[in-house]
Write a structure and sequence with these properties.
Layout (H helix, E strand, L loop, with lengths): L2 H10 L4 H21 L11 H5 L4 E10 L4 H17 L5 E11 L4 E9 L2 H12 L2 H10 L3 E11 L14 E9 L4 H11 L9 E9 L4 E8 L2 H12 L4 H8 L3 E11 L7
Antiparallel strand pairs: 1-3, 1-4, 2-3, 2-8, 4-6, 5-7, 5-8, 6-7
Length: 272
């Protein structure tokens, strides 16, 4: 019998039942794994997502500045002088929360986080006041010569996040930024309201925000650690906490893009 004939005969022989059983078992395992990744349906609501996710009247302003490598020192001095002008004005309901240099991630980048107490009305008031200050305007113009690009976002704080506390001593920070699928912010908040309970071991949770103006469906989680080794140990302890893996499984399908940056506070940062 030729080789072609043997192949034809083998093709006609039914496959063993055990193979079918194995395939069914594999399909069942896959279905069980996929079920963890299924995102629960979000029902229509009459309330805006921001009102459901945040119960605070504070507005946070996140500046991301990409600095020319040969101008980092001049840039930081410029921003320090800008902060001093803002602090000298007693009628502004704004304060600097944190100021950082990126050490791992987008290098030659600086982040500055401001808080306005009283909503967007206070944002408008501060802009009007500062735009009439000649020294402030001059510093803004000078700063432009030190930058490659910049981006501004207005954020709200998640209501379930621990109360913001400025840190002392020597710390590093990690900002984990997520771009979510449109329409999934409520689902993200529902899951992280439970997930944050698994991230309280070393007082690591610093702040959690979602965007209002700027790049939309953006989330920023900011964590505080003593050093990189402390970060490693703290994150590994979360995986040993029952339920953390399920929170991750439910939130991963909501993400379109994510990245993290390790930050070091500037000398004039209120949180260190």
């Amino acid at each position: 019998m030729s080789l072609a004939s043997l192949r034809h005969v083998r093709a006609l022989v039914p496959q063993p039942v055990r193979t079918l059983t194995t395939n069914c078992a594999l399909h069942k395992d896959e279905s069980s794994w996929l079920s963890k990744l299924m995102v629960r349906k979000i029902e229509p609501t009459k309330n805006s997502h921001s009102r459901m996710l945040s119960d605070k009247f504070d507005i946070y302003e996140l500046h991301t500045h990409n600095v020319r490598p040969d101008s980092v020192g001049k840039y930081l001095e410029n921003y320090k002088n800008t902060v001093q002008i803002v602090q000298s004005k007693g009628n502004l309901s704004m304060e600097l929360i944190g100021s950082w240099n990126v050490e791992v991630g987008d290098l030659d980048q600086c982040l500055h986080l401001w808080r306005y107490t009283g909503g967007f009305e206070m944002v408008d008031q501060a802009k009007r006041e500062l735009s009439s200050d000649k020294n402030y305007v001059q510093l803004m113009q000078e700063r432009g010569t030190f930058l490659r690009s910049r981006h501004l976002q207005y954020l709200l704080a998640f209501s379930y996040w621990p109360q913001l506390q400025l840190r002392e001593g020597k710390n590093i920070y990690e900002i984990r930024s997520y771009r979510l699928k449109p329409g999934t912010m409520i689902e993200w908040g529902n899951n992280w309201a439970r997930a944050i309970n698994h991230r309280q071991n070393n007082n690591e949770a610093f702040a959690g925000y979602f965007s209002q103006i700027g790049r939309l469906y953006n989330v920023h989680h900011i964590w505080c650690y003593k050093d990189l080794q402390g970060r490693k140990e703290t994150r590994e302890s979360a995986w040993r906490s029952p339920g953390w893996d399920e929170c991750v499984a439910y939130t991963v399908p909501l993400i379109r893009e994510m990245h993290c940056r390790i930050l070091a506070p500037t000398e004039f940062s209120p949180t260190q």
